[in-house]
Every structure is written in structure tokens, then in C-alpha cells.
Amino acid sequence: MTTAFYPIGTPGQAWGDAERSAWLAQQRTHRSHADDVLTRIDALPAEWQRIDYGTVTVGDHAFPLRALRRGAGDGRLPLMLVTGGVHGYETSGVHGALAFMERHGADYDGRAD
């Protein structure tokens, strides 16, 4: 017999709407996407092109997904991708990507798109 180790759901069974709602009701905000991510993106120099490519909605909250591009993007230079924020609850990746762009992004002008 499997003992329940988490207060929501039944071991071995996928969550449904009721379990997702119960989980969401227990959550609290730890960080602000607007303050911690979007504000830093907005503070980048104009050379960074901002590209909105979608929105993630959780409950009543909408979180814009934004990519940044610096350079012509015409295929003559190697393409470089710096990514973060793969999972919404893991914030170190997006903070690392933003720090790289803030500190070193301009170092690659003319060397990579």
C-alpha cells in the first residue's frame, strides 16, 4: 500500500481541476515577474529589440513572455542563444540570463547575433 506523502491528490493518479485548484489556493507570491524581470528588460539600452511571443496565464495573473535580440539577425554572424526561465518556479536561470545581457551583451556586437 502506498502512503500519501503530499496532502493533495491520490498517489498514482493524475491531478484534475480540483487538485490543481487546491494547490493554487495554497500558493503565495514569492517574486514579482513585473519587478524582477520586466523592469530589468525595460532598463536595457534601445539596442536590445524586445519581442513579445506569448503569455502564460495562471489564475488571474498574466505573464508576458519576452525575447530579446541584439544585432541584425541577417544570418551573417553566428547565432548565440542565452536562455533562462524554463520553469516558472526556477528563477535563477532568468536572472542569470538578464545579468549576462546587462554586463556582457554589448561585448558580442559584430561577433554574434
Chain-wise SSE layout:
Elements lengths: L16 H10 L6 H11 L5 E10 L2 E9 L22 H13 L9
Antiparallel strand pairs: 1-2
Give the helix level as a range of percent.
25-40%
Q: Give the end-to-end Cα distance, rounded to a whole number of Å.
A: 56 Å
Low-confidence stretches: none
Share of residues in strands: 15-25%
**Main sheet characteristics:** 2 strands, antiparallel
Q: Strand order across the biggest sheet?
A: 1-2
Number of strands: 2
Structural class: alpha+beta
Number of helices: 3
Order of helices and strands: HHEEH
**Outline type:** elongated
Summarize model confidence as the mean pLDDT.
Answer: 88
Radius of gyration based on Cα positions: 19 Å
Which features would summarize this protein structure in a list?
113 residues; alpha+beta; 17% strand
